[in-house]
Amino acid sequence: MTSLDTSTAPHKILFIDEPFAEQERLRQQRSAFLWSVLSLAFDADLLLLKSQVYLEKPVPSHEGYDRLYSLSLESERMLLPDSYHKLAAGQAERFATILDSKRYELVILAGLACLPLGRMIHRVLPDCRVVLDVEKVHISQVQEAWESNKNFDNYQALWTLLRNRAADRFFHSRKNLFLFHDPASQAELTDSFKIPEAAGCLLPLPESQTSESEVSTSDSGANFLLFWGDPRYSENLAVARKLVSELYPRISKKLVEKNITLVLCGDDKLQELCGGRIVHAPIIDLPALIRQALLVLLPLPKPDRELRILRCAFCSKAVVCSPAAVQGIGVSGDSVFVESSPEAMIERISSLLRSRAVLETTGKLLAQFYQQEYAREILEKRLVEKLRIWIEK
Asked: Residue 176 to residues 171, 311, 350: CA-CA distances in angstroms?
């Protein structure tokens, strides 16, 4: 953790999430990062939401708070969507007492699961700024579950979708402010909630120096192009199919001549597309693959949920991609190859394979961009400055 400017009088803020000290999931990792910054730069209290799990095990120890509070969650949600937090009986009154007694200037809520709590905060503290830190937009997967099978047998998925949409509209306030983990979530929520530009901020989780040091670089003779996609997102299968059916056949002769393979890294559905010089790798191998690849290919049709450009930048890896892959990131044309059509992408790949020195140069430029815009100390400063602007506005 770098030192932060605390020269101004600290604002009183509250951070709310389920226990996050173990940092096993993305939500916990984001909360740990945010809290490490908030606890140094502000007069910060912490409120932990305890699910039924903590009836049988202790809450992990957390540090850095001025005051620590806890509230219990109800496991039965009735009409409330499963993705939302619901306070247990009697806890809403206690929550209101906590808010009223401390008169917070800003409250940060961990994820869209906390939208119902945001509504309560607006009611108890009308002048308090409420910020939701979004690492996942749950409505996307709910909608996909219905649209992938619009049959009567799947009526439960439709009911879940309608319930989530209604709850989102009911609990969202135009006063809410947002921190976004990725451009896809930012674009989706901005459109759905009609969020003004000034009310949102892209704040990715910084790449881990520890994970970087563990990346194997022993295979210096690796000779492959790479595409990867998180198995949780079905759109990655569509991109992989496009690579295999449209791009690969038109560069396959050149790849064979240079003994270059195409690696699809992801779940078993990607493996079904492989054969010959198109090979599969499990997602667990990804850190080493990014480091060793000649070039990463990202012909994405939508803004990226997985921050793949930043992952490549962290590893100094050159990228050929679509405009959607860099949307919202702010990367310049000098440090990444952005092509709008399959034809232009094929021509670019062929050109780069004839001059590999350009790959190394561009990879270094992309790494410089990362250090200037997304290194941990940069994100820490950006977070503090943005929150102070929102509080003082």
From this structure: 10, 29, 47
